[in-house]
Amino acid sequence: MEYTTLGATGVEVSRLCLGCMNFGSEREWMVNDRAESVQLIHEAIDAGINFLDTANVYSYGESEEIVGEAIEAYDRDEVVVATKVFGEMRDGPNGSGLSRKHVIDQCEASLDRLGTDYVDLYQIHRWDEDTPIEETLAALDYLVETGRVRYIGASTMTAYQFTKALYTSDLEDLSRFTCMQPEYSAVARHEEANLLEVCEGEDVGVIPWSPLAGGFLTGKYERDEEPAAGTRGAASESVRSYFSPENWAVLDAVRAVAEECDATPAQVAVAWLLAQDVVTAPIVGPKTSAQLRDVLGAVELELTDEQVERIAAPKSPSYAPPG
User: What CATH number is given for 3-181 in this structure?
Assistant: First the structure.
């Protein structure tokens, strides 16, 4: 395993981050068996992945509980644990968002579920239109100052919003976001026209989610064929949204490069991200030991400049705010 530093910090993280959204029972395609989930996390850590990413809303806290159970077998200093706050954790007032109340309450709840005294990286899962960013940043700064959180991060917002947050931290002398978690893959490159330029200019780490586009870039789906039952493609409209002519062209290039390199499409897709200078650690979400072993091979795979450009060629990145 290779390691790098997270943004402008000195904390060392593996070049792959283990995404833990799959561990829980909220969806049928998740790893519903807790012991199996814990074992897979152990395999990842033993293979050198020291960076784990979860969120309070993943199976409504169940993912955090599983992560907490898994890391009990290791010295706490050996792992970098990241979680997130924003989503709805209960019905009624103050059940979601980024108010000071919700941020601090949910941090305490996450610590309990994770069975730890501190979170290494605490991230806002989305931008909150109803809470001033100054309030949110002050709450996060309090968590850092009191030792509950080591670093703070953000995910999925406009470049303006992220820039405003960074400069507010500078002006108010508050803890600064050290990393950004955007969607980014060879078929989802809209952040090249939005957040990634800010991250590069501000020395912010980038830990992309969905580097395999919900499994599309593994090559398990085919043109003009319905996704097999039990796959995310069958269950998720968001995965099927990748089924466009230009994305099939990207997948064709990925498959061709995989054949040239004696690698799998998944390894090539993750290696393509690792070849982007702005990327710190893609968040990979294996559900089996075989998938984990496969994606680990991406770290050893070095693509040529021509191969990187060939995979990128079918796409022309542009950004449109969601809504």
Answer: 3.20.20.100
